[in-house]
Automatic annotation (TrEMBL):
Keyword vocabulary terms for this entry: DNA-binding, Transcription, Transcription regulation
Pfam families per record: MarR
Residue ranges occupied by any HTH marR-type domain in the UniProt entry: 1-144
Protein's recorded name: MarR family transcriptional regulator
Record has Cell cycle as a keyword: no
GO terms, molecular function: DNA binding; DNA-binding transcription factor activity
PANTHER family referenced in this protein's UniProt entry, alphabetically: TRANSCRIPTIONAL REGULATOR, MARR, TRANSCRIPTIONAL REPRESSOR OF EMRAB OPERON
Secreted among keywords: no
Listed Gene3D superfamilies: Winged helix-like DNA-binding domain superfamily/Winged helix DNA-binding domain (1.10.10.10)
Amino acid sequence: MAASEEASFEQINEALVNVFNNVVWIEEASLRESKFNDITIKDMHTIAAISMYETRTASQVAEMVHLTPSAMTSVIDKLVKKGYVERHRDDNDRRVVHLALTHNGRTVFRAHEAFHRGMAHSLFDSLSDDETEAVKKAVLNLQEYLHELIQF
């Protein structure tokens, strides 16, 4: 790698680390300063995994947020107690429990989704079509790389 390419790589690497750290910090600070200050980032991502649009089982959510089933049970118990999530038994198989968001859960879900959509819009708003495709390809490549690391 030439010196200029190495400098460019290091600049991009540093920017990616900075973006990741700032996103986490902003999410945490936003939660602390909101009426939803009783939940953590892990709780928020669990709420996001449950989704507003479909029900999921605790096992499905645990897999999505990379927690063990027992750890997921603890997180779900807290979110139920705080009024963000509710459990519903399956009508056909009473052993299966589906998770759904309450009104408060849906409200914080929408706020979290708006934050992430705002980031994406700020990234793409000033780009040409070609630049948008290049960023899309780079982000999807990064997503694939991270997915492969998770599969170890």
